[in-house]
Amino acid sequence: MTEKTMTAMPVAHEVARKAGQGAGVSLSYEARFLRRKVLTSDAGEAILVDLPQTTSLDHGDALVLSDGRHLAVIAAPEPLLAVSGDDLPRLAWHIGNRHTPCQIEGRRLLIQRDHVIRDMLRHLGATVEEVVEPFTPEGGAYGHGRTHGHDHSHSHGPEGHTHDHGH
């Protein structure tokens, strides 16, 4: 894609929280964690997202475009596991203990498909079924949108260094 092509498309430099209405872009949970990327709206229009920092977008947010429009962020259906059982709080604890994103509902939990977690939950007595639905998990502790991507600063001598990685 040439620089001329990229500048001809609308650019999103900011996010309006909980302001998404109308035309949108459907994104999976992982795709809603971004900083700079060309997206294609549900109507087929190319949009350049160029945010100041990596941002976790939520279903219902809006990308504010350079031409003044708002493009709604929509949680796209994706492969998930629906978890249910007699002791849902205990199952939720085990999921959280593994830092697994989890959507908490009244009678079930939704998590991304993972055969190891699935087997563990079944061993704990859970009913686990594969579904394809939008995924809007709980945000991380202390108001952070994601529970991974935190900084691991520490010192290994006089200079020290940091490790910023996604877990």
Automatic annotation (TrEMBL):
CDD domains: UreE. The keyword Transferase does not apply. InterPro entries: UreE, UreE_C_dom, UreE_N, UreE_N_sf. One of its GO terms (molecular function) is unfolded protein binding. Keywords: Chaperone, Cytoplasm, Nickel. Residues 148-167 have a biased composition (Basic and acidic residues). Residues 9-71 form the UreE urease accessory N-terminal domain. Gene3D superfamilies: Urease metallochaperone UreE, N-terminal domain, UreE, C-terminal domain. It is found in: Cytoplasm. GO terms for biological process: protein folding; protein-containing complex assembly; urea metabolic process. It holds the Pfam family UreE_C. GO terms for cellular component: cytoplasm. Belongs to the UreE family. Involved in urease metallocenter assembly. Binds nickel. Probably functions as a nickel donor during metallocenter assembly. This is Urease accessory protein UreE. It comes from Allosediminivita pacifica.
